[in-house]
Structures are given as C-alpha cells and as structure tokens.
Amino acid sequence: MIIRFAHEKDLQDVLEVERLSFPSHKQWDYYDFKAALRDIFFITDCDGKIVGFIIACIYEGENRAVITRVAVAPEYRGRGIATRMIEIVIDYLRDMNMSEVILDVEIVKRGAISLYEKIGFEAKGIAHSDNEEEENFLTMAIKLKRYGRATG
Fold first, then answer.
1. Is residue 64 within 8 Å of residue 144, measured between CB atoms?
2. CA separation, residue 88 to residues 6, 51, 108 (Å)
3. Exposed/middle/buried for 111, CB within 10 Å: 0-12, 13-18, 19+?
4. What percent of the chain has pLDDT over 70?
5. Interstrand relation of 137-143 and 2-5 (parallel, antiparallel or unpaired)
6. Of 132, 138, 129, nearest to 105 (Cα)?
7. Pairing of strands 49-59, 100-106
8. Using CB atoms within 10 A as the burial measure, which of 25, 53, 98, 127 is most buried?
9. Secondary structure E strands in 2-149
10. What is the residue-wise DSSP string for 61-83?
11. What is this structure's pTM?
C-alpha cells in the first residue's frame, strides 16, 4: 500500500472510488476533484490500483483544517486504509503547524464515527441540513499538538 499525493492523471480512478462510495446525488464530479488538487489530496495505491482518497483544506488565517472527503473502495474496506490516510493527513497538518482538524460525518454512519473517535476526534455538535431529504451531520474535531524535539 502506497499513500501519495494525487495527480490529475489519477482522477478517473478516483472518480470510480467515488462512484462506488457515495450515492449518485452526493457524488463529486471530475471538476470538483480537479479543483481539490490545489488542496491536500492523497490517494492510496494498492498494487497499481487506486483504492482510496482523502482531501483536506486549510482555513486561511485560522490555523485549522477540514477534511472534506474520505473514501475507500468497498472491496478494500476493513483493512485500515482509511485510518492510515487520516493519520497521514493529521501528521501532514501537524507539520504545517495546524492546531485543529475538523470534519462532518452523517449521523447515521456509525462505523465512520467510531473510526474517527478511535483516531481521537471528538463530537462538537450537530449540523442540521435545510433539505429534509438529506441527513444531519455530526461535526467532529481533533486538536493537534506539536511534538517536542529533543535538544542538546
């Protein structure tokens, strides 16, 4: 398993993971992902096949970031791929001196909520959708601490 930055040549494969992971009315399109290449966008490659991705962006001037998208192809779930991608993004953001990472997860996605809690995210509140057909979201956050470096 290799986790690396995404490139434009990866987007068709990313779109397939997206198609397999989200209902059609909630899917991002090619241009959404192309725009995300300017953000923090990692993909997971297993034996030459893209099987997952994670996207995060930084709130300019606020010293915090938001994870906007995480997906792993169904046949690769349960192998720790999402956990590893999230840990890598958190480490990357910590190295950028970010103090907090937030994300929203649909309240009905208990497995995802459990995963985020195991990593250290804590529930901060519920975001209610204006659309009755859409789920409400749980906002979760993790505080990032800089690791001290030994001197002398």
1. no
2. 14, 16, 26
3. exposed
4. 91
5. unpaired
6. 138
7. unpaired
8. 53
9. 2-5, 40-46, 49-59, 64-72, 100-106, 122-127, 137-143
10. TTTEEEEEEEEE-GGGTTSSHHH
11. 0.87
Query: How far from chain centre, in Å, is Cα 86?
Result: 6
Bridge partner residues of 67 (DSSP): 56, 103
**Tens digit of each residue's pLDDT (9 = 90 or more) over 56-82:** 999 878 889 999 999 999 999 999 999
Chain segment 97-128, per-residue pLDDT in tens: 999 999 999 888 888 999 999 999 999 988 77
- Using alpha carbons only, what angle is made at residue 137 by residues 135 and 143, rounded to the nearest 5 degrees? 165
58's tokens: 């930084």
CB 50 within 8 A of CB 44: yes
